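Changelog note: in this version the structure field was regenerated for every chain. One regenerated record is shown below for reference.
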Amino acid sequence: MKFLQNSFLCVVAAWLLTAAYPTLAWWPLAWVALIPFFMVLDTKGWRAAMGFGWLFGFCFFFSTTGWLMHITLPGALLMAVYLAVYPALFGLSWVYFKKLPLIARVIVLASCWSFLELLRSTLFTGFGWVTLGHSQYQNIQLIQIADIIGVYGISFAVILVNLTVYETFNALIRQKDALGQVRQLQLIVIGLLLTALGYGGWIMSKAKFADSVKIAVVQPNIEQSIKWDPVYMPSIMTKTLDLTSQVAATGDPELIVWPETSLPGILSEQPAYQEQLQLKALDLSIPILIGTIRQNKQDYYNAAVLIGEDGEIKGHYDKIHLVPFGEFLPLRPILGWINEYIGLEDFTSGHEYTLFSAGKAKHPFGVVICFEDALNDIWRNFTLAGASFLVNITNDAWFMDTKEPYLHLQCAVFECVMNKRSLVRSANTGVSGFIDPLGRIIDLAHDKAGKRTFVSAHATAAIPVNTQLTFYTKYADVFTYLCLLCILAGVFMRKPTGNTRQEGRKYA
């Protein structure tokens, strides 16, 4: 019965936390959602804590990333199985640091969570989606401090509040002698939150951008099942060109952006389509940025190509961070047998952070393709290279009409805030639009009914450009590595007790 009760509490915590993310996006829930999970951990040895941590993690990650099943159900399950390892490690940390003084324990545990998120976003090519911090993407004033502490710093704040609320109730109900320490902890946490909010208010009040550039996006909404069918390629090209003409006529943009792999087929193998596109740019006298597959000898690249207003190709960017099992087969000598079932041809990874220019002032910008707009290092490197704004071209049609496009948008909002750069997003289907350097959504493409995904649409907006570098852009995740120092300090402070191993066996 106790096992079922603990399992139920883990599922409740996972559901509450899931509700803090799109499509519900009840972000205040994230500040207390983990309390049922903590209730389970607080009486467990390390084996049980890891087990219930894994259960919580599996329920949470499958409910937030289950859209992967539209590509492969076994893959979606395996992804959740793997990602759940990180909450399991947090459960182990809970037991390991249980004997620390209250304030030290809370800070060290919050540091553990944040550092585990950094590891999750890095190991095995990384998956940094649905961090605790991402749940706060609509909490604009608070998240401005991410330009110093990054998204994992916002996660630190959210987990810190969860821990403080839990310890407050714990002291009131079970450990009244700890009330004095709890009050000190509360003052520390309130002070940190007020500092973050004050910093956010100051940043927002002084944010003035000297210039802007007017950009249009087209969202053709091509079904994935027909996207590469030669029969449909002429109609796909016609549809996208028509949307281009419409947005050029209504918005007078300085650049028009097409989504990822929007040009049917491979660029070098489709001269007729390429000529149509070049003539369209020449006729409109507007540059057009397209997503396409580019070939160079025996190598194929997922690329962005800029067609100038004179109809000439001005340059290309080859995607640097490829998606495993989507754009290449990792460990092909070992896993080559899998290819009999998925038939995957490897793309080649690019190596250069290519900059293009847009507008009369020739503002430099970088292009991030697909999930690259959720990768901290890709954004930082483009910004350090001189990009004054970024463009994301993507294709979220793979995942059907699910929450995935909005989770993708969450990540993009944080990258804008951390680097203080605007983002233009053009998706084959949802969500296409514009985000300013403060993470505020300027506009999203939609149909007459207001629907944003799985509709054909276009939009135009003037986005601010910026050249100043943030602390985060210069120094990356320094805050999270300070969290690692806190963890090491906790290890040093921890005093092993003679019955620790015995207690572990008792509760496991």
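Spot check on this record: Confidence is low (pLDDT under 50) at residues 498-508. Residues 2-206+477-507 form one domain.
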